[in-house]
Amino acid sequence: MAANRKTAKLKGKPVKWFAPTTMDCGSDLFTFNEKEWQVSLATVQSREKVKLNAGHYQRGTLKGRKPTSAQLCKHRDGNVYLHIQLKTEAPESDQSSMEQT
C-alpha cells in the first residue's frame, strides 16, 4: 500500500483505489508438510490444508528443507500462488578475486 501511495505522490496523482493482493505468512500462519506435499495456512475461521501443485524443480528445491515463511499472492491473471521462502547461507567470498579489483 505504501508503494502505491509513494508512486501516486511522485506522479502528482491521487490514489484512486487499493486492492490488497498479497498476504505475508510467517511461521505462525504457515507450515509445510513435505510427506504430504501440502501446506497449512491459518485463516480467520480455521486452518486450511492445501495440496501443493509443485513441479519437479520446486519439489527438488523444497525436499529436505524447512521453509519458515510464505507469501500468498493473487496474480493479475486471477490465479492465487504461494511463494515459499527458504533461508540459505551466503556463500563464502573469494578473497583472491576481491583483491584483484
Question: What would your notes on this structure say?
Answer:
The mean pLDDT is 85. The protein has 101 residues and is an alpha+beta fold. It has a domain at 20-87. It has helices at residues 2-11, 56-62, 95-100, and strands at residues 22-25, 30-33, 38-42, 47-51, 69-74, 80-85. A hairpin with a 4-residue loop joins strand 3 (38-42) and strand 4. The strands form 2 sheets. It has a 3-stranded antiparallel β-sheet, with no helix packed on it.
What's the SSE blueprint?
Blueprint lengths: L1 H10 L10 E4 L4 E4 L4 E5 L4 E5 L4 H7 L6 E6 L5 E6 L9 H6 L1
Antiparallel strand pairs: 1-5, 2-3, 3-4, 5-6
Q: What is the overall number of helices?
A: 3
Principal-axes shape call: flat
Can you summarize the main beta sheet? 3 strands, antiparallel
Strands of the largest sheet, in order across it? 1-5-6
What's the rounded overall pLDDT mean? 85
From the alpha-carbon coordinates, what is the Rg to the nearest angstrom?
Answer: 19 Å
> SS-based structural class?
alpha+beta
Taking the alpha carbons of the first and last residues, their distance comes to 41 Å
Oligomer: single chain
What is the N-to-C succession of helices and strands? HEEEEHEEH
* SS strand fraction: 25-35%
Give the tally of β-strands. 6
Q: Helix coverage percent of residues?
A: 10-25%
Low-pLDDT parts are none
